[in-house]
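Format notes (please read before filing issues)

Several people have asked whether sequences and structure tokens are stored in separate files. They are not. Every record keeps both together, in the order shown below: the sequence lines, then the token lines. Line labels are part of the format and must not be stripped during preprocessing.
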Amino acid sequence: MSLTGDDDGSTPDLCVLLTTTSTEDEARALAKGLLTAGLAACVQLSQVDSLYIWDDAVAEDPEIRLMIKTRRSLAQTAAAWLEREHPYEVPQIVVLPALAVGSDYLDWVIEATSAGG
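Then the structure lines:
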């Protein structure tokens, strides 16, 4: 497998956005919206238990994590879309850059998100 990035000194045009929702229906709606808008190539959903500070107390809730694969060049647009469409008052929107990625996978991500900009 050929990797783009890391060893060759380049930075691949790929990143992962992370967010969470309280229900699977909310997560699926966000995922389908991002995919339909061309802002993501793939969104993986997984159940997580979240512990966090809210109103000066420790809160604990089951959530659905969305792992959103997109181009770095679309990260700002995808994050703005998430902020607008997300049901949470303060949604988690974290962008993680990819240090290296399989070149065929990167080609697919770029093709799958071509409608997003």
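For reference, the curators noted about this record: The chain has a mean pLDDT of 93. The CA atoms of residues 66 and 98 lie 17 Å apart.
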